[in-house]
Amino acid sequence: MKKFIDLVSDCCATVPELMPWDLEEKRAANPNLLIVDVREPYEFAAMHIDGSLNVPRGILESACEWDYEETEPALVQAREREVVLVCRSGYRSLLSGRNMQQMGYRHVYSLKTGLRGWKDYEQPLVGRDGAPVDLDEADDYFTPKLRPEQRKPTA
Q1: Radius of gyration (Cα) for the chain, nearest Å?
Q2: Interatomic CA distance for residues 37 and 53, integer angstroms
């Protein structure tokens, strides 16, 4: 049986990862770069990279195809474009990248460290209204908040 982290690790073999500074350079060099945020809509609304497209991981595959309610035309037409997937930590984006590769996306990357690392690199984030997010608020938002019942039992 594989655990979540094993599934994520398997994706590292095929999905290239970018560090935040690599993404910063790619954005500057490629105005056609598509950044896809695979977090849930409420996460995206709280803060995201300006100009990114929100396509939650749960509907990603149908969003990549024509003729579905979830179809995202910009994404369907991006099979030959550079696509960088982002999430909170870099795990969901790796899993998403593997599926997109299987669907014919040739230049798909995952942001290693996710938006937490993007924020730690002091890159800008915007909120629902497009206004800049205070990075101190982002620190609190990205701090894990596990409830006791979510922790592995000790005995």
Answers
A1: 16
A2: 6
